[in-house]
UniProtKB/TrEMBL annotation:
Keywords: Acyltransferase, Lipoyl, Transferase
Enzyme class: transferase
Gene3D superfamilies on file: 2.40.50.100, Chloramphenicol acetyltransferase-like domain, E3-binding domain
Highest taxon listed in the record's lineage: Bacteria
EC number: 2.3.1.-
Protein's UniProt name: Dihydrolipoamide acetyltransferase component of pyruvate dehydrogenase complex
Region annotation (Disordered) ranges: 80-132
Length: 421
């Protein structure tokens, strides 16, 4: 018996994923929970385990393909399945689901569903008449595709397993589109075409949404971070911080946390549906990280409750995990305020775009020695430029400026982190 494994909803509310790499090939023997494939969603890389033991009969998608949730991606032959789900009660909910059960995978519980290929129970004699397509066997994604394309499922010739209508059966009823105009010649030695997908596609959509839905305002200041740089050097030689990466970003993060406590409006969310501003009493601190997959913004949960040492550990672990492509969906969700460190690239300053829903984002430029008037004399000091972009619906110029001034004050004199906490 062949079992067809469909791409599941991995619990992120996404509709598609890219096949990154197959961990099996036709002819391989697999056991329950063996990893079949690694996929990339718009948020993270995810490994999918096998719900059956058996032999890989066929791979239905190639590496690099983008596949919709619910589409079959692999066939397992003579598979012995995990314990079956209880038989569902007759009703519409029995058709909900992809037909594949994930083992040991953290997805949300779905409504009870009918076994693949089992005909729907006949309606009671007193039941009202229903459209002919309601009696057609088809998975929810196929039904949605038919609705979107205006195709009558009852007119399709089912070729799927158990007499079900497949995507191909639906698409076969769609008239061929008119011929496209001839494409221009592309010299691939002079141009490089990069597919817009995965993290890049999600980032583009999020930035467009943020830029055109939230009125951005950015304020700037230059800070004398000489004392901060001295403290960084002391922490690097402190036995308590042995083996922990200490950088100026750690103290910038601490300064932002102190400022958020004194100016809670910068740690808020705009709730359009309920027409309220939700001010958070906790800080999930996001750090923008450049990775081979694109820009990711993992966040440290409850960063405001951590000591400086705990914050250093979590920042280091989170950045490393993101760069290795192992950030989990939870790491990337529920951020409340963000730092982007453009100084890493030798840049002085910038006007960052807000993460959708957040009230503020802080950009930190490079920290370098420059002439500065200190105690009435021109001296070489470590200077940095800070810029704070904020949503003008939630913050006005005064509150945004006060928050940035507090961040600068802590970096000029880190002892304020103690007196203001």
């Amino acid at each position: 018996m062949n079992q067809r494994f469909a791409l599941p909803d991995v619990g992120e509310g996404l509709t598609e994923a890219e096949i990154v790499s197959w961990k099996v090939k036709p002819g391989d023997t697999v056991a329950v929970n063996d990893v079949l494939v690694e996929i990339e969603t718009a948020k993270s890389l995810v490994e999918l385990p096998s719900p059956w033991a058996g032999t890989i009969a066929e791979l239905l998608a190639a590496e690099g393909d983008t596949v919709e949730v619910g589409a079959d991606i692999v066939v397992v032959r003579d598979g012995s399945s995990v314990p079956a789900e209880p038989a569902p009660e007759p009703g519409p909910a029995a058709e909900n689901g992809s037909g594949a059960t994930l083992v040991g995978y953290g997805t949300k519980e779905s409504a009870p569903r009918r076994r693949r290929g089992t005909p729907a129970p006949a309606p009671a004699a007193s039941a009202p008449a229903v459209p002919a397509e309601a009696h057609v066997l088809a998975k929810p994604p196929v039904r949605k595709l038919a609705r979107d394309l205006g195709v009558d499922l009852a007119a399709a010739t089912p070729t799927g397993p158990g007499g079900t209508v497949s995507r191909a059966d639906v698409l076969a009823l769609v008239p061929a589109p008119p011929a496209e105009p001839e494409r221009r010649f592309v010299d691939h030695e002079r141009e490089r075409h990069v597919p817009i997908r995965g993290v890049r596609k999600a980032t583009a959509a999020a930035m467009v949404e943020s830029a055109f839905s939230a009125p951005h305002v950015t304020v700037f200041t230059t800070v004398d971070a000489t004392r901060t740089m001295k403290l960084v050097q002391r922490l690097k030689t402190d036995p308590e911080y042995a083996g922990i990466r200490v950088s100026p970003l750690l103290l910038v993060a601490k300064a932002l946390l102190v400022a958020a406590k004194r100016n809670p409006d910068i740690n808020a969310t705009w709730d359009e549906a309920n027409q309220v501003i939700v001010v958070k009493n906790y800080v999930n601190l996001g750090i923008a990280v450049a990775t081979p997959r694109g820009l990711l913004v993992p966040n440290v949960k409850d960063a405001d409750d951590m000591s400086l040492k705990e914050l250093a550990v979590h920042l280091g672990e989170l950045a490393a995990t993101a760069r290795e492509g192992k950030a989990k969906p939870r790491d990337l969700a529920e951020g409340t305020i963000t730092i982007t460190n453009v100084g890493t690239f030798g840049i002085d300053t910038g006007t960052p775009i807000l993460n959708p829903g957040e009230a503020a984002i802080l950009a930190v430029g490079k920290i370098s020695q420059r002439p500065w008037v200190h105690k009435g004399r021109i001296k070489p000091r470590y200077l940095a430029q800070l810029s704070l972009s904020f949503d003008h619906r939630m913050l006005d110029g005064e509150s945004g400026s006060r928050a940035l001034a507090d961040i600068a004050a802590v970096l000029e004199d880190p002892a304020r982190a103690l007196t203001w906490s």
